[in-house]
């Protein structure tokens, strides 16, 4: 068993998710973005340069110290360098130089990646059968929302168009305080796309 560091860069978090979740890289990135924006995973970020004062800092702040955007998309992050592409604001009450900062990097708390994005601790095994039955947290979240909204089954597309179904599932996930999932995942779970 290899040592898992307490904090993971974005690329490491994706690999952790892909190893157990059975989802696409794009779904993993989207889940990470939603979890950061919803503050369901703890993060830390290292300051680099203030955008207006042009001062630098090596200070590492916790996620609660940033005014994190309410919506983050995969294109908003540099996955290789593990940082947002646009500056994030630092709360006035936290640091002597509040305002917009470019960040050197952000990291996610490994335990939160495992418990929230990977669907909880899993047993390591080389057994091929168990590898094919790995948990898929994004699909499980979509299924949970579908079950709550439509206990008797999802209405047909003529009654409930795909766009409306996806919007309602997204709203239910938000109400349940669960990370969002992609429309493609929702439609697959609902039986409207090929697995």
Give a nutshell description of this structure.
By secondary structure, the chain is of the alpha+beta class. Helices cover 37% and strands 17% of the residues.
Shape: elongated
Strand content: 15-25%
Low-pLDDT residue spans: 121-134
Residue share in helix: 25-40%
Class derived from helix and strand content: alpha+beta
Number of strands: 8
Summed up, the domain count is 2
Distance between the termini: 32 Å
CA radius of gyration: 19 Å
Q: Please write the string of helix (H) and strand (E) elements.
A: EHHEEEEEEEHHHHH
Mean pLDDT: 85
User: Biggest β-sheet: count, sense, barrel?
Assistant: 6 strands, antiparallel
Work out the helix count.
Answer: 7
Explain how this protein is built.
The protein folds into two domains: 110 residues, no CATH class; 54 residues. Helix content is 37%, strand content 17%. It is built from seven helices and eight strands, in the order E-H-H-E-E-E-E-E-E-E-H-H-H-H-H. Strand 5 and strand 6 form a beta hairpin. The two termini are 32 Å apart.
Give the helices and strands, then pairings.
Layout: E1 7-9, H1 10-21, H2 25-37, E2 43-50, E3 60-62, E4 66-67, E5 77-78, E6 83-84, E7 88-90, E8 99-109, H3 110-117, H4 128-132, H5 137-149, H6 162-175, H7 183-189
Antiparallel strand pairs: 1-8, 2-3, 2-8, 4-7, 5-6, 7-8
Helix pairs in contact: 1-2, 1-3, 5-6, 5-7
